[in-house]
Design a protein that fits this description.
Number of helices: 2
Strand order of the largest sheet: 1-2
Distance between the termini: 34 Å
Strand content: 15-25%
Radius of gyration: 12 Å
Structural class: alpha+beta
Order of helices and strands: EHEH
C-alpha cells in the first residue's frame, strides 16, 4: 500500500547544527518551513543560501 505524504507547516526554533539540518530536510520533503533564531542575520543568511 502506497502512503501519501501530506505537506505540513513546520516551525524550527534555533538554527544550530540540528535546527539547520532539520529545516533543510523538512523543506526537501515538501513542507513549508519557518525558522526562528535569536540572531536575525543568521536566519536571513540561511534563507538566502537555499
Amino acid at each position: 500500500m502506497k502512503q501519501h505524504w501530506k505537506s505540513k507547516s513546520i516551525l524550527v526554533i534555533g538554527l544550530g547544527k540540528f535546527g539547520r539540518y532539520l529545516a533543510l530536510k523538512m523543506q526537501e520533503l515538501g513542507n513549508e518551513v519557518m525558522v526562528v533564531d535569536k540572531g536575525e542575520e543568521e536566519a536571513q543568511k540561511n534563507v538566502r543560501s537555499h
